Amino acid sequence: MIGEQQTPRATDVATTKLPDTWAHTPLTVVMPTYNEAGNLPGMVELLMGLDQPGLRLLVVDDSSPDGTGKIADELAEGFLTEDGKPRMSVLHRTAKDGLGRAYAAGMAKAVEDGAEYVLQMDADGSHPAGKIAEMLGVARSTGAGLVVGSRYVPGGTLSDAWGAHRKLLSRWANAYASTILGTRVRDITGGFNLWSAPALKAIDLASIGSAGYSFQVEMKFKALRRGFQVMEVPIHFEDRTVGESKMNLAVQLESIAMPWKLRARAGK
Ligand SMILES: Nc1nc2c(ncn2[C@@H]2O[C@H](COP(=O)(O)OP(=O)(O)O)[C@@H](O)[C@H]2O)c(=O)[nH]1
Ligand SMILES: [Mg+2]
């Protein structure tokens, strides 16, 4: 443990025990970071401690001024597979370029390097690592191209730290995007998602237009359009306790415009 303050809460314990062959599934967690020095060590410890020998971690850092990239490099040296290969690696990018672009670059690299599944996960402790096994189990048993860690299916919950106003805003943003796009995914704006490699190849990450948070909506819409099955697994979403949110006006405006753009392009 790195110390109480720096350790994100493990908001959920792993309740799913995967069969051994499934636990060895090549799955890469892609984690974008910008100024997450206080969160990253705890996140890495949490992920590397899971009972999933097939799990790898790829951190995508946009030259964080607080040195997150260097911390990631140092941490990566400490985690090797049974045959001495790295379990954790870092993709360094030169400038802050948006969460969407960081995810797109990292997910493309993960697939290129042989991942059969790619999990998107934020570095701020919001997403429950203990749910990864269940999401992988659902993907493998149903053949779904996408498994959404969902706040808005029965059993899904939001942090108590969120007031009524923020909860309502999140619900509203979610309803806004899915109504415009005519989708039935309950958590279309959520950022804790497991993708199969074939789904990511079909979506073509290079064609993604979103720089910021609308990445989540664009990706899910494109998966549905290409006919992939989408499943949702309930999660508890925790509020960040360390560091600051990177949400700003530009990404909010992009999120308002993107559903309309996607709808127009789809000819709906
Ligand atoms: N590499 C990179 N990561 C980012 C960028 N913007 C946000 N992130 C990361 O994306 C994740 C989600 O961002 P966060 O600020 O928590 O968004 P919020 O949960 O909506 O407030 C965190 O791990 C951030 O460090 C960016 O421009 N580049
Ligand atoms: Mg966050």
From TrEMBL:
UniProt keyword annotation of Glycosyltransferase present: yes
Top-rank taxon: Bacteria
A GO BP annotation: glycolipid biosynthetic process
Cellular component terms per the entry's GO annotation: membrane
InterPro entries, A to Z: DPM1-like (IPR039528), Glyco_trans_2-like (IPR001173), Nucleotide-diphossugar_trans (IPR029044)
Family note: Belongs to the glycosyltransferase 2 family.
Record protein name field: Undecaprenyl-phosphate mannosyltransferase
